């Protein structure tokens, strides 16, 4: 079943629609001083952009641009037309905000409905949403999409896993929406409470909000007895609904009538061939409140333009296999190596060599920060060394908001390649596609 | 000359203790005494050697983090209550002892030599000397250890 006929638009018609919408987007963006200045700096006249391919002449937008224009400097409509504000966590404590008009919210709901239906959701189903409802786009985005499909909702919101299990066991929803790691955690807690997670009656799951692997999909499907579908999105572009899997599950169809996607080499910013992993860059085509031009997601994935058996014509993106800037998502929280450096700086004055190792031994992420002991930090008294470790532990927690295990290691114990230290070792990606 | 101790940071995994010992062995440096403190994840090896500067040099060249600490070597009567008397002196002076380990055991009725890691070695030395405890110089301490 296909929710919106636009999902099967022939490529030639799609290209015409994209060109038309891109021109309209540029006209809207010209209302934003930031974009006007960016056009001038890059020496591009917005009206010189005729086709979707011309998007390459436009300057990039990066997260820092949103941060710098805090709180709503990239707004392209009068403030009175803002129907909703969402946000994503930032490195420095302040979130970056994104805004939506009524029309944006309508379109966003439809985009979420597309992947929900593509992945088997039907009117009459009951869905438990275990995403946070708040500034995070996951909760409200999926909620509206499910309503648009015509299915019922248990808005459980995030956290309180025993309560999630109780709701699943008592209300017996057909589908679960959350992060993939949380789905496994729910199964684990159900099991600990003596329940068979397979007997909860779930048949379907739509998961997103963090990178995951095929192995995890198999584990989730096995544990919960469901079919699990992947979806993708980010608040800067719109939130969930940028792309999602169909029943073929050979990648996530990008809603190209609403977003232009490019896949670029993060170093050269030149396009990579289809099938090769590159950084995804999106340009919104229909957003009113906050159009975004060539937004560098830092997400690494490959594109597949071969036709899909499902009939949808939108290009498929593979799983996100990493971040071009080493950002880590640990238990759903964005963590930057720079935050670890900051913690070490606070404790030790200057940051020694360190390595963040992330693994998912069970269902939840575990992070270990290995810190090399330098002569200036070394003391012969055990009490002082334990205290040093504990202070690092405390600072990391206060800066990132999550607990990471701190290990002191011998000098030069951490590998360096070509003089440049490796900061992150993510074992979660090792078995990825 | 004061008695100096070398401390080394070690990770708590197989082979980590042998490595510095092998470095010293290759350099012909004799370990007079040692003590090891460990946690589940890392340890601190404390060594007293005859040639501490040379030992430090070869260990640092081999990539170890070495710290030098001044220690207090004191003769302790080798009889029940011998150590308690010394610790009492420290307690009364509110002088904290980080750790202690033996340099030589005297044998029944003789004296043992212990090395003390204290916050203020000079003050600790005066305190013990006032109680008639003999404080050993570096040379005396090393010779007490059998050299």
What can you see in these coordinates?
The complex is a heterodimer of chains A (433) and B (147). With 433 residues, chain A is α/β, with parallel strands linked by helices. Chain A has helices spanning 11-29, 33-42, 63-68, 102-118, 137-149, 161-171, 180-192, 214-224, 337-348, 382-400; strands at residues 84-88, 96-100, 126-129, 152-154, 175-178, 204-207, 227-234, 239-245, 252-254, 259-264, 277-284, 295-304, 316-317, 322-323, 328-330, 333-335, 354-359, 366-372, 405-409, 416-417, 420-421, 424-426. Chain A folds into two domains: 1-323, 3-Layer(aba) Sandwich (Rossmann fold); 328-429, ANL, C-terminal domain (GMP Synthetase, Chain A, domain 3), CATH 3.30.300.30. Chain A contains ten helices and 22 strands. The radius of gyration of chain A is 23 Å and the shape is globular. The model of chain A has no long low-confidence stretch (mean pLDDT 91). Chain B is an alpha+beta fold and 147 residues long. Chain B folds into two domains: 3-69, VC0802-like (2-Layer Sandwich), CATH 3.30.2130; 72-144, 2-Layer Sandwich (Alpha-Beta Plaits). Chain B contains five helices and seven strands, in the order E-H-E-E-H-E-H-E-E-H-E-H. In chain B, strands 1, 2, 3, 4, 5, 6 and 7 form a seven-stranded antiparallel beta sheet that branches. Chains A and B meet through helix 10 and strand 19 of A and strand 1, strand 3 and strand 4 of B.
